[in-house]
Task: structure prediction
Amino acid sequence: MSNVVELVAKRLDADACSLYLTDAATDELTLEATIGLYQDSVSQVSLPHGEGLVGLASTTGQPVVTVHAREHDQYKYFPETGEERFESFMAVPMIVRGATIGVLAVQTIETREFDSNEVEMFQTCAQLIAPVVINARLLALVGLTDEDSSGTTAEREALENLASDREERNIEHRGIPTSRGIAIGTIYRLETPLKLERLHYTPNQDPKREVEELMDAIGEARRELDGMREKLGSKFGLDLAAVFQTHIQILEDKGFVAKLRREVLATGNALTALTNVIGTYRKTFERMSDPYFRERVNDIEDVGQRVMESLLGERHHTTPLSEGAIVVASNLLPGMFARLEVEKIAAIVSEHGGPTSHGAIFARTLEVPALTGIPGIQAAVRSGETAIVDGAEGLIILSPDEGLLYEYRRAQKRYTVAIEHLDALRDRPAETRDGRSIRLTANVGLMSDLRLVNQHGADGIGLFRTEMLAFAHRGFPGEEEQAQLYERVAKSMAPRTVTIRTLDLGGDKEMPDVSMRLEDNPQLGCRSIRLSLANQGIFKAQLRAIYRASAAGNIRLMLPMVTSIDELRSAKVLIAEVLDDLKRAGIPYDENVPLGLMIEVPSAAITADVLARECDFFSIGTNDLTQYTLAVDRGNEHVAHIYDPLHPAVLSLIDASIRAASRANIPISVCGEMASNPLAVPLLVGLGIQELSSAPSAVPLVKEIIRELDFGDLEADVRKTQKAGTAAEVHQIGAARLRDAGLLEHPDIGPWLQTLIDKALLGH
Ligand code: PEP
Ligand code: MG
Result:
């Protein structure tokens, strides 16, 4: 605490600064730290609330300011502090949740009149210090081990804030743009969750009291989860809220609570009880053959963590997410969204990750601006400070001044109007000027996304990423639950088609806490269809669920990341078994569900003729196709500048796939992010693609572009790109087309397209 008083004294240019804290046992204020008063008096001087000027600040909850302290009628002299040297005095209470936890006081030798600005600044200091104090006390109480001796993040952050007010304004950090839009909000630093095993906890002496406190903590955790479930459920649909439902069920489980109670009485320690009970559950679940049950252990662990946080009284690894939060994370894995109140997120900024990483894709689906690839941004920001995020520019601006805020508020308004204009195109066809029509479908992953599909006028679902359900549920739902979910999707979209892709886990789609094999090179490891074929129980349960739902609507089944015909054939064997079972059980399903493949590795594109003979449709996953063709990790910001779906090599594989599909007379679409890249859209249409599936919000934009194009010109453009040797040349061709089509003058999207072109031509 001594650095705290030193910093405050410096900030206020005072000769002494002292921190008095309420002692819970005696309910007196004790001098805990000082600079300026005699050090010997620390821990020796105590005074009841209400006594002396410090006590006055504490009981009234108001600042006490006096030019001549000794003349104040509440003045009390403590000879052991040596305070007779000081003349002027100011004290402010430190209040946390309505309770005074202490008082901060400054003194000066010379006579000084503290003005209202100084009083305000002093109060701000006290406010900043209060959590640090609570934290320090908490740490002392539970003996939290932290390898970093400089304290917790919250503590460091508060001290940094105290040490210097940002004087500099409009501090810009640039990253890779991943989702368009403008946000003005407050920074939320996403920290890693509290780990039970890192805690050393001091329990109550009385085990009964310990039980009571643990039960209270369970109650509080339940209430918190209830609140989150309700809010999320009403806004985003039940699937996202289901994360919380599972956790609530555990907390309501009589067996779980009774075991905890018994353990606390036996061990006298709530932390030990939680760890033991979770351990027992873990062992039981891990022995189960059904992977769904095996994965429930994550929920139990999550619940244990939440209860412990409530027991400690503070979520000291993080601050609550406030409305309009700009989430700043190190890396945003899709599973992390399940822990956040997504409806409060205004923007997402991360240090790591590429533009087609799944965190970025999720941000686009949420329709919040996002950027990535800014090393050190977590350290550069402070929770609670105001910032601007410009997703199109890939820019975050800290500490914006009023002028800039004004400018961005206007830009924000313009952006909203532009989006509304585009949405108004909902019912017009996606057709080129010369009559070539393109199906525009949407990529979704959660039930809540369905609303967006309708809002933006998509013609069905071109890609339903089922692994998103696994993230939302923190474990993949079982057959029954999946069947219900898919049925709801099919029904709500009918007669439009829904292309359901089987589980595509692995690579950067790692499920937090799910024990997937650790691999040196997960992008080339046991991911996607390989994982499904290796876990036939999960795979068949999913296939059954998809076929069961097929009776309710217009479903297509799609396999991800197929690299050879063998995988397709293996999957077909399992499908045949599943259909046989369903038939025998008399469960209805559609006998004509088309079975398609994703073309997302070069081997699939190169052998597309072979694959096309044994499947019903293709969909090109350009995100992975680019990654595997160019050997560029799609989630690595360091190589993001060479990740480019417009590279001639990628285009040539797309072309080969389209030709193979055409020879076999099967439909082909693109469902990677390239499908909504304005520079790529004209070329994909020119190459003969019939369907583009993108984030729902991108559908109107793609439609607007297509409606301004002539198919004849696009074919000519394609011929030009076939002679191009570099991605830059292809960018030029795409940019020229947008320009010639007059799209750069478009009132709603013109300026943004221009920015995009400028960036692309500059090689960003
Ligand atoms: C792709 O790879 O292009 C694709 C659509 O799949 P995902 O982004 O989910 O890997
Ligand atoms: Mg993919």
About this structure: The two ends are 47 Å apart (CA to CA). Residues 504 and 528 are 4 Å apart (CA to CA). The chain has four domains: 2-163, 171-192+318-400, 196-312, 429-710.
